[in-house]
Write a structure and sequence with these properties.
Length: 160
Amino acid sequence: MGPVVSELAKLPKADVRAMAVYLASLNGAQAEAHVVEKATRPAPVASLSLSNGQRVFEGSCKACHADGLGPKLFGVSPSLASNTNVHSDQPDNLIKVILQGIAVPATKDLGYMPGFKDSLSNTQVAELAAYLRSRFASTASQWQGLEQKVAHLRANPGTH
């Protein structure tokens, strides 16, 4: 994604705005289909603790992702509310970023993000992902099978 952001930064603002308007217009049709799908889907089984996920967020993430509400300890505070990984249909990219971090950010002003694969358990990562989804994408359906997904992605890191 870094090269995409880097290259898009070179475009005139009018072009970037036109692409954003177009992409947002696509979301309207998907949102209608999602409402129908969500109404027919069975209620998820809640086995992960959102309060534990919140504690992990506050202890590991909030220093950098305070959404402008907290200290900017490292000079930035990118909002997770606009992070596409949190709004995605699949949790894979979010989990990979939590586990592996981001060594080379999209722009220099963002700074790098450390990986937490050595400091958070599968359950903690799953609870963090569930909390982030609940807090920053509250209208989206909750992801299922997060602990199994975390275990799989930890065992098969690949690239992102």
